[in-house]
Amino acid sequence: MARMSADERRESVIRAAITEFARGGYNGTSTEAIAKRVGVSQPYLFRLFKNKRELFLAAALRCLEETPKAFADALERRPDSSPLEAMAAAYMGLIEDRDKLLMQMQTYVAVASAEVAGDYEFGERIRAAWAEIWDQAQVAFAGDVNEVTDFLGCGMLINVLVALGFPEDHRVWSGLDMSDIGVPR
């Protein structure tokens, strides 16, 4: 079996961090649990990432960066679809990975907690990544901020409903009939 390069090991640590932080949040997750999931020592983990905060930030940014990439890919692969159809389908595909969805939700909580504690730098990086999602949607929707707001607002509602585990036939989904845009629930 070939040894992993430092970049490959770093990537496996980020994937493990997404899973562990998604399930336990920033404060409820130990770096020991992440190291164990990857099969490395905790000291090795800190050779790859300066501290727990840096590791959480890498995991959070990874999740946020995947969204505009998925949107761009969908718009390119589905040129005959409306931007709404293409991007909605891409987003539904992303949130099928429950750990990534929960990591996204944990990220928002971590930003709020960091800022209560006086750490504003952390939130700046997260907001910059989230602004990329907004900017891409604004371009896709030809600058129509109402469409962007509706699209992202529905996305956040979907996040909440999925994270809370509401079954697809529950009444809380009734206002989100996405069959007309080709996205099965």
Write down the Rg.
18 Å
Which range best describes the helical content: under 10%, 10-25%, 25-40%, 40-55%, 55-70% or over 70%? Answer: over 70%
Largest sheet: none
Strand content: under 5%
Summarize model confidence as the mean pLDDT: 90
State the total count of DSSP E strands. Answer: 0
- Overall spatial form: globular
Order of helices and strands: HHHHHHHH
Quick structural overview:
With 185 residues, the chain is mostly helical. The protein has helices at 6-24, 31-38, 42-48, 52-77, 83-95, 98-116, 121-140, 145-163.
Structure description:
This protein has 185 residues and is mostly helical. Helix 1 (6-24) packs across helix 4 (52-77) and helix 5 packs parallel to helix 8. It has helices at 6-24, 31-38, 42-48, 52-77, 83-95, 98-116, 121-140, 145-163. It contains eight helices and no strands.
Write the layout of secondary structure elements.
Elements: H1 6-24, H2 31-38, H3 42-48, H4 52-77, H5 83-95, H6 98-116, H7 121-140, H8 145-163
Question: Which features characterize this protein?
Answer:
0% strand; 185 residues
